[in-house]
Amino acid sequence: MTIEFSVSTHGAGLYEITRSVQNWLANEQTKDGLLTVFVRHTSASLLIQENADPDVQTDLHAFFRKLVPHANHPKMTYLKHRYEGPDDMPAHIKAAMMPVSLAIPVLNGQMVLGQWQGIYLFEHRDAPHQRNIALNLTS
Question: Which CATH architecture describes the domain 2-138?
Answer without folding.
Answer: Sandwich (2.60)
